[in-house]
Each structure stands twice: as C-alpha cells, then as structure tokens.
C-alpha cells in the first residue's frame, strides 16, 4: 500500500465571498498564468496569513505577498486588480520579507474603502505559484471568514517536490573574481543583495573561511571584499541553479559599477593632514573642494529615549513595521527632490538597509525576547555599524554612518520625536560630530557655505553629496572644532582641508577675491542661461536637456534648457516586478510634457534595454556579448506588445508639447520601417498625427547610411557614448580600455560629420545627446560639423550656452575643418585645449 500524500489547508486571508479564478476580470489571473487557486471578494480590510511559513516576497507596492511553507509550497495573495498602480497608497504591511509568520497572523492592513475606490476591482487572488508541488487542489465555495475557513485544500505531490526544495544538495558556484576597484562596497553590495532577494533559495556569499547572507547588504559589505578576491556563491532551494547563474553574471559585471564610479580609498597620510593644528587653523581631510567664508553653526544629533521592555510581540512588531515603512517613504520624498543620480543612489541604498534581512533578524530576535521595537532596532543597527567600523577597509568603516543614519530615522519615528530639520541661517559654516547623508542631501547651498565633520573621510557618502552640491567640506576635523564658539567667522578651504579660525583682514580679503572670481563667472553663465542659445553672430543652436522624469524637466527649464532632447523612458520600467501599464506611462509622459509646455520640444526615446540594462521581468537570452545582441529597438520589435503599449502612452502627450519619438539602436532601414509601421497603426487608432520621428545614431551603419535614412526620418540624435564603443570596438565599461574609448577619437568625429552631411542633404536636423554634448570644449566643434541641437546634463546648460556665445559660426566651422584633419585623440584634445574660450 502506498503512503498517503501530505495535505495542506489554505485559510481565508480575508472575510468575503469566494469567486472562481477563471471569472476574474484579468487575463493573467483568469488564464492561470501566475498559478492556480481561487479569488475572494472581501468584506474585511486586514489580510491574514493563509498558511504558516516564511514571507518569501513582499511586493514594493505592498499589495501582494508570497509565503513559502515548510513543505515548499508558495502561496501568493494579491489584493485587488491593478492595485500595483496605487504604488502602496492605502496599504500598510505588518511584516517584512524573510519573516516567519503563523497562519492567521495579520500581515497587511489596507484601507478597503480607499483601495476599492481607486482599484479596478477588490477581488483578491489566493494562488499556489509553484503548481509542481501540488498533486491536486480543491477550492471551497460561498462565504468564508478570515483565518477560520479553508479556501483551498491541497494534496501535495507525495512530498517529492518538497524534498527537492528542502533536502536537495546545496549548489556551489565556481570561483568569481571581484572586479570592483573598491570591492563590494555599499552600492554594488546593495545591487547584489537586492538581486539575491528575488530568489527564494537560501543564498550565501563565501570568501575564504567567511560567509555572508547574500540577501543582506550589511553582511555582504561586512565580508570586506577587495579587488581580485575570489568568492563563491552557495545556494540551496528550488531556484538555486538560476540564482547562482544570475548572481555570478552580476558579480562578473561588477554589479553595474562602471570604471571611475567606485570611490577611491583615502590615502594613508593625506598631504593636508601633514599640517598641524594651531591657534589659527584646524586641519582635516579635504572632502569637497572650494573656499567658503562664514560663521560657525553647530549641529548636534538628537538623543532618543526608548523603553527597554515592550508592550507585547504583536504590538511592537506592528509599530516597527509602520516606522520602517514611514522611514522608507521619508527617504523616497527626499529622493524625489533630488536630480543627481549619485545622491539618489545613496538614498536608495538607505532604503535597501530598511529591508536588510540580517538587520531585521536581529531586530525580531530582540522583539521575541520582549524588548520594545525601539530598543530592539537600536541594538540591531548599533551592532552592525560597530561591526563595519571594525573593518580594515576605510570605505566600509565609513558606511557605518549610513547605517546609523537609517537607524536614527526609524528610531525617531518609534520614539514619537520629529527629527529637527537643519534650519540654518544664510552664511553658515556647519560643524558637526557627524552629519547624516540624508541631512547632507537636503542642505541648501544658498545658505550653507561649507561644513566640517569630525568623523568620515573623502570617500564618505557625506563627502560625495557635498561635492555633488558644490559645497566645500572637510571631514575628520579636529575635536577642537566642536568647541569653537557659535557665530565665529572662519575660512573653510575644502581643497586643502583647513579651517582658518582666526583669519586676519588680508586672509579674508584674499579668500573673498577668489570666491568673487568664481562666483562672477558662475553668475555670468547663469544670467545668460535663460537666453536662447546662439553663436556670437546669432546662429541659433538648441541647448536642451537629458532627463528621466517630470522633476528633472522642471529643473532643466529653470536652469535654462530650451526643451528635452532625451527623455530616458527606462526609468518607468526599472526597479519593478512588472512592466508599467499604459496609464502609468501616459501619466508620466504627460507630466513631463506639461512641465515643458507647448513651445518646447520633447524627444522621448522608446525603451532602451538589453546589454548592460536588463529588466528582471523581461528575461533575455544569455549572450556571450550582450552589447551585440538584443538591445534597443531589437527588443521592442521582439516584444511588439510592449512597444505598442509604450507608443500609445507617449502619443497621449502629443497635444501638450512638441512631441518627438526616437527609436534607439537602429542599425537598418528594415528596423526603422518596422517600428514606424507600428507607430502609424497606433497613431491612426488614436488620431494623433502631429509627431516627429527620429532615430538614435549609435551604430556605425546608421551613420554610414545617414543619407539613406534621412528621407524616412525627421531628425537624428547621436548617442556618442555607444557610438564610440561600436566604432572603436571597445567596451566603454572595460577597466583597461575605457580611457581609450574616447568620443573625441577622429574616427568617431568623422562618423558624426558623416551623419551631419547625410542629414543636411535632405534638410533634416541632427542633435547630440551623448556625453560629448555636455563638454563645453566640444560644443563649437559639434556645431561646426553641422549639429544644431545639443542635449546636455542640466548642470552643463549654462556653461555650454556661454561657450557657444563666444564663437561665430564661421569660427566653429573652421575649428571643425581643422580637427577633422587630425589623426589622434591626443592631437584633437590638444587642439581643443589650445582654442578653448
């Protein structure tokens, strides 16, 4: 007689009426593409765990979670239809990913009225996503009560799938050599941990005799890896093989870190530190260059008093979950106000820390011992920051500040104390023991002339943020700085790392003269930035901006940009589990269009992924050389459903602005014609025909055939970054070749000139939206070759406009003729430097 297959009962997560899954008004669920199960029309608003197990996935929009049981069965609960579009509004998670839960435990609260008003439907799906673990399934019918009635009765597959999931041998990767110059410091560690979390398997990163939870950014940083270290990945679970393959590739790709992006470790004995403190001067490490004169304002961190004993496990757990959620929302609000990708990346890492499984495990251990949420959380983040500070790697020691920053943010919420904002008077020189990266990101450069911190160094996130804000800064200043009297006038030299605490009249005058010289130049450029860009003899050149979203568009316009020459639509597709809907995309494109108005052009590039820009929900085949495989328009033509949805969404912005649609990575006329045919069909269906169509020139074939493409497009936009790597056959991210992959190489410049010649013959205009456009030395050269639009980074708008105003068109053309006759990059750069104005 055979053994009886094990059985698992799935409880109702909500009260309400059961509905067959195939009647759900969503083809993905009704077609059982996610898995089989049942739907429920709810009458309650507190989601209970339908089974006991581990929360293996908690969606970032908090409308769905998956629990993996001890038997290996994955049960997903998805609240409502299209609720991902609510972006978390009305949902309040009570658990964290990686947390063990019991059946009937409250896991997500949601405002049933708010969600019901804004979602397509409240129908909630209870689905088994790994059907191979189930032999048979019986769904209940009628009315059910949350946490009490069984909605699905599962007969498991004789435990075989379970045994494979739980008892199979762990898989181990081959050695992987760390290629990141600074090892797996904060940002690559966060990328690696985030990817690891997408797998249900238990995953460890191994270095010699040490190992770390691969899903914990703190643990990965704590390994203190260095360039050249050999690591291995061990995974145990149903998707172990896939996890090892993808994480190995991620490490081989340096977790997306490009050459030059890694912070450099500070020298053991910086030149500035050789100077000695004196009665007139204190010395630290120059963290952000520049000179500032101001008066001292001290900033001291608040203390938070939290009780040791808690009020009960569930109460403290819910308090912690809500505080962590609110902290993440606060960080997101700060990020939304920033345009600098470097600053946004630092704060994204802070958000990753809030979901760090090792930090959460320590916290939940404290809660299980009866401690309050504040006490348990403080013990957890304090232990981890101390662990990083004990590392030999100075980069990792400085990351302890990031953990403390995130920790204090949550602690303030748990203590019910509003953290004091940095409200500073104009002309301040801020002095602090420590300054949180999030506080630094929010500093107002018009009021804060500079700052000093006793802790940190030139590679700290505080220093990185100071440089991005253009604020002179010193880290590692003497303890004596904390005792200087409030309001004392000082001179801060961020280049040399010195703080003059008793400047005399001559020193003040010299500093003021240098500050005035730099300020005058910046003011002149800013003043002219709002004027139409033109050469000295009045020939118009459009200086527009490269942006990602509506906030970027508003900032660009405020800084003088005359429109948008490149809207990178990828930002809508990144960092999510599913492709954005047509409505989501349309809302963003229209917001950008409204920020520009009807008189400014908007060039939207269709989805450009593949190569070094993968999407988790758009799996592409593994390629030996992804840069020569499915990229750009090739991906869109391979997935016409995505292309059609995106084009319909973009076209909704047509009435609001001067809309241009641009296809990336076009290599042949066949590709262009296929993409245009899809666009024409969508234009006919929506009636929006007043749209210009162009292509990116990134592939040499497009430049060579520009005269053939020109009759079939309205414009060209040259992406110099990719064009350079394809013309020179050099990966622009290669650690040895990156310096040689120079857009000023004569071959690249001749490709640009060839594109301009082909376009000019048919009366079409050419823009440049790659990095070369933002180089003010190259601006007159490009104009001389025939480029009539420069799409630049927002900070470069003023300087590029000012440079063009110093050249006549004839001089630009002569410069182009001279440069195009040169044979080496060295000659080109020397010539441009000699003729810089």
**Helix proportion range:** 25-40%
Supply the number of structural domains.
Answer: 5
Q: Would you identify the regions where 5 or more consecutive residues have pLDDT less than 50?
A: 159-167, 264-274, 733-739
Q: Which CATH architecture of the largest domain would you pick?
A: Alpha-Beta Barrel
Strand adjacency order, main sheet: 9-5-6-7-11-3-2-13
Distance between the termini: 92 Å
Residue share in β-strands: 15-25%
Q: Structural class per helix/strand content?
A: alpha/beta
Query: What is the CATH H-level superfamily of the largest domain?
Result: Phosphoenolpyruvate-binding domains
Largest sheet: 8 strands, antiparallel
- From the 3D structure, determine the CATH topology of the largest domain: TIM Barrel
Can you put this structure into words, describing what you see?
The protein has 837 residues and is α/β, with parallel strands linked by helices. The chain folds into five domains: 7-156, Distorted Sandwich (Glucose Permease (Domain IIA)), CATH 2.70.70.10; 171-256, Histidine-containing Protein, Chain: A (2-Layer Sandwich), CATH 3.30.1340; 281-301 and 421-514, Glucose Oxidase, domain 1, CATH 3.50.30; 313-415, Enzyme I, Chain A, domain 2 (Orthogonal Bundle); 532-835, Alpha-Beta Barrel (TIM Barrel), CATH 3.20.20.60. Helices cover 37% and strands 20% of the residues. It is built from 27 helices and 35 strands. The strands form six sheets. It has an eight-stranded antiparallel β-sheet, with no helix packed on it. The chain has an eight-stranded mixed β-sheet with strand order 20-27-26-22-23-24-25-21. An eight-stranded parallel β-barrel has the order 28-29-30-31-32-33-34-35, surrounded by six helices. The longest helix has 24 residues, at 313-336. Residues 26-130 form the PTS EIIA type-1 domain. Belongs to the PEP-utilizing enzyme family. Its cofactor is Mg(2+). It catalyses: L-histidyl-[protein] + phosphoenolpyruvate = N(pros)-phospho-L-histidyl-[protein] + pyruvate.
């Amino acid at each position: 007689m055979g053994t009886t297959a094990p059985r698992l009962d799935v409880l109702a997560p909500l009260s309400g009426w059961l509905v067959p899954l195939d009647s759900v008004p969503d083809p993905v669920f009704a077609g059982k593409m996610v898995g089989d199960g049942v739907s429920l029309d709810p009458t309650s608003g507190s989601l209970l765990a339908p089974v006991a197990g581990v929360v293996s996935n908690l969606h970032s929009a908090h409308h769905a979670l998956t629990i993996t049981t001890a038997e290996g069965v994955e049960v997903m609960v998805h609240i409502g239809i299209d609720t991902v579009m609510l972006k978390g509004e009305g949902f309040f998670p009570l658990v964290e990913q990686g947390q063990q839960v019991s059946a009937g435990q409250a896991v997500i609260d949601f405002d049933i009225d708010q969600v019901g008003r804004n979602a397509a439907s409240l129908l909630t799906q209870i689905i088994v996503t790994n059907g191979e673990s189930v032999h048979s399934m019986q769904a209940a019918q009628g009315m059910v009560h949350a946490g009490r009635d069984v909605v699905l009765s599962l007969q498991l597959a004789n435990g075989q799938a379970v045994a494979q999931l739980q008892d199979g041998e762990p898989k181990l990767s081959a050695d992987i050599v760390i290629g990141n110059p600074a090892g797996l410091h904060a940002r690559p560690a966060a990328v690696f941990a985030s990817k690891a979390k997408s797998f249900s398997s238990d995953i460890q990163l191994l270095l010699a005799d040490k190992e770390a939870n691969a899903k914990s950014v703190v643990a990965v940083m704590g390994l203190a890896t260095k360039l050249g270290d050999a690591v291995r990945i061990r995974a145990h679970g149903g998707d172990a093989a896939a996890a090892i393959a993808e994480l190995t590739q991620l490490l081989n790709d340096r977790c997306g870190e490009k050459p030059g992006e890694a912070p450099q470790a500070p020298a053991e004995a910086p030149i500035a530190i050789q100077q000695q403190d004196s009665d007139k001067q204190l010395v630290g490490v120059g963290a952000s260059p520049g000179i500032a004169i101001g008066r001292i304002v001290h900033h001291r961190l608040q203390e938070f008093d939290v009780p040791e004993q808690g009020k009960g496990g569930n109460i403290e757990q819910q308090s912690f979950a809500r505080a962590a959620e609110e902290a993440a929302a606060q960080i997101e609000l700060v990020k939304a106000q920033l345009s600098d990708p470097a600053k946004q990346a630092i704060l994204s890492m802070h958000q990753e820390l809030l979901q760090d499984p090792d930090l959460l495990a320590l916290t939940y251990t404290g809660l299980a011992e009866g401690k309050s949420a504040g006490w348990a959380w403080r013990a957890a983040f304090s232990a981890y920051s101390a662990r990083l500070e004990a590392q030999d790697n100075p980069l990792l020691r400085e990351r302890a500040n990031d953990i403390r920053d995130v920790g204090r943010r949550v602690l303030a919420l748990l203590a019910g104390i509003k953290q004091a904002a940095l409200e500073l008077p104009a002309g301040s020189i801020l002095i602090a023991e420590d300054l949180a990266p999030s506080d630094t990101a929010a500093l107002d450069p018009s009021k804060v002339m500079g700052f000093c911190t006793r802790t940190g160094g030139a590679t700290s996130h505080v220093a990185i943020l100071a440089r991005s804000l253009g604020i002179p800064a010193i880290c590692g200043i003497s303890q004596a700085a904390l005792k200087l009297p409030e309001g004392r006038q000082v001179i801060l030299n961020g280049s040399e790392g010195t703080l003059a605490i008793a400047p005399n009249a001559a020193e003040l005058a010299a500093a003021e003269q240098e500050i005035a010289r730099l300020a005058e130049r910046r003011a002149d450029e800013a003043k002219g930035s709002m004027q139409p860009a033109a050469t000295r003899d009045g020939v118009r050149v459009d200086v527009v901006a490269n942006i990602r979203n509506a906030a970027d568009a508003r900032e660009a316009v405020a800084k003088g940009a005359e429109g948008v020459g490149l809207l990178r639509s990828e930002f809508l597709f990144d960092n999510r589990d599913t492709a954005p809907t047509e409505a989501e995309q349309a809302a963003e494109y229209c917001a950008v269009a409204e920020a520009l108005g009807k008189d400014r052009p908007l060039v939207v590039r269709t989805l450009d992924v593949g190569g070094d820009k993968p999407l988790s929900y758009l799996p592409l085949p593994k390629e030996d050389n992804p840069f020569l495989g499915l990229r750009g328009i090739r991906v869109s033509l391979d997935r016409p459903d995505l292309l059609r949805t995106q084009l319909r969404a973009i076209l909704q912005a047509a009435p609001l602005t001067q809309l241009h649609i641009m296809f990336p990575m076009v290599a042949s006329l066949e590709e262009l014609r296929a993409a245009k045919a899809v666009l024409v069909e969508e234009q006919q269906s929506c009636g929006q025909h007043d749209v210009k169509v162009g292509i990116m020139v990134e592939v040499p074939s497009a430049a060579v055939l520009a005269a053939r493409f020109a009759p079939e497009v309205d414009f060209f936009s040259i992406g110099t970054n990719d064009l350079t790597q394809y013309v020179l056959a050099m990966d622009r991210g290669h650690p040895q070749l990156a310096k040689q992959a120079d857009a000023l190489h004569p071959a690249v410049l001749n490709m640009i000139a060839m594109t301009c010649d082909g376009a000019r013959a048919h009366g079409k205009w050419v823009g440049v939206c790659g990095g070369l456009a933002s180089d003010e030395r190259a601006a007159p050269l490009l104009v001389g070759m025939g480029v009539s639009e420069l799409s630049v980074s927002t900070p470069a708008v003023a300087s590029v406009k000012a440079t063009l105003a110093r050249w006549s068109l004839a001089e630009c053309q002569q410069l182009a003729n001279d440069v195009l006759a040169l044979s080496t990059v060295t000659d080109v750069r020397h010539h441009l430097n000699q003729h810089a104005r």
